[in-house]
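Regression check, 4'-deoxy-4'-aminopyridoxal-5'-phosphate case 315:
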Amino acid sequence: MSQVKAKYAFFNGKIVPIEEAKISVMTHAFNYGTGVFGGMRGYWNDDEEQLFVFRPHEHFERLKHSAAFLRINIPYSIEELTAILTELLRTEGYRENCYARPIAYKSSEMIGVRLSDIEDAFTIFAIPFGSYVADEEGTHVHFSAWRRIDDNAIPARGKITGAYANSALIKADALLAGYDEALVLNNDGHVSEASAANVFIVRKGVLYTPPVQSNVLEGIVRRSMMVIAREELGLEVVERDIDRTEVYMADEVFLCGTGVQMVAVTRVEHRPIGSGQIGPITRDLRRLFFDIVTGRVAKYRHWLSPVYAKEKVNA
Ligand code: PMP
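Current build output:
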């Protein structure tokens, strides 16, 4: 995973050098996890010399919902947020794939666990970003011993910073046990998602994914993948509870999300999935996904927001 530092951040209402974008150890969100965040990717298209941000409208819409839930005010419209992100990416001058991280948080420097009468702040930074998973065509996962946080504790759909201690435990234990990722069960014992990605299984040509009521983040790639599978591959896609043993018996399994993008799961613990190699549906969806996010499919250009203003002019 890339650890290159950003050079700039949007902080306190303007773009500043990253060294100036600092918070205090007394910041409420640092102490209590009272922040909400997003993560979106920019994809560089070399032929068009253009950077495309994937579905910023949907990402900022979700961020605003998450923020409202934690009583954090983001003083910008979705259009203004997209414009701020665009300006930040232009300032960085990225001509490569990158990842943007907006965070809205409780910024008062104080002790006291609550959400009211506390100041809010908003920041964004963006870094160059490649693959998140070492082998995108052959990921090896296990079922985590941790359970997914419940909607009645900290809602997963909220993308709340403090809730990611749950994801960190899940991911850390998977890595330390020698796996690349983990699948997590709900308290009712059904499959929810991975540490930071949604999951799909394929059984007899039908795609299944856990419904949004199963303590999953309402993933924007998940939503996109359902459209692509239906419209481009003519597949049936069903949202329903998934049992653990269905994963073992699936023909194909894949994870999707902004960070992981679209990765084939080929082994769960000691069990190969299907043939133990990436399957045909996962392969087709992967190819379509990368064509779409890099702007190569006209039908889905409306999912992309170009960063650089120029329409290339042939001199
Ligand atoms: N689930 C969790 C817990 C996540 O953190 C993410 C990454 N944002 C996802 C699913 C995938 O969501 P998206 O497709 O919107 O990135």
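Comparison notes: DSSP finds seven helices and 17 strands in the chain. Residues 39, 167, 193, 196-198, 217, 219-222, 257-259 surround 4'-deoxy-4'-aminopyridoxal-5'-phosphate (CB under 6 Å). No diff flagged against the previous build.
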